[in-house]
Design brief:
This protein is an all-alpha fold. The chain has a domain at 37-77. The protein has three helices and no strands. The N and C termini lie far apart (64 Å).
């Protein structure tokens, strides 16, 4: 498989945007350029694998790639948070 320079640039741009968006949705802030890129690219793999299996098909293009990658990245971050106990626990109110 051969990836052109333009294809690689598109993958990196989609990864950065999707990772940044997922960081804003789940954490409230981004993870830096490299962290956003990694989360976005892994999220794109998860999203592009999961969405067709759920019967969800978006149009082709850069915007749909960003949406799918963001959904996958959000799922990735939520799973990581649940596995590591990152979400705050509910307080039990005592009177």
């Amino acid at each position: 498989m051969h990836i052109t320079g333009e294809g690689l640039l598109v993958i990196l741009i989609v990864g950065v945007i999707a990772g940044w968006l997922a960081g804003k949705i789940v954490e409230g802030s981004g993870f830096g350029l490299i962290g956003d890129m990694a989360v976005g690219i892994v999220g794109a793999l998860i999203g592009s694998w999961l969405m067709p299996r759920l019967g969800i098909h978006l149009a082709s293009g850069m915007l749909s790639a960003i949406i799918v990658a963001t959904i996958g990245a959000v799922l990735l971050l939520v799973i990581v948070k649940l596995a590591t106990g990152g979400f705050p626990r509910r307080r039990s109110w005592r009177f």
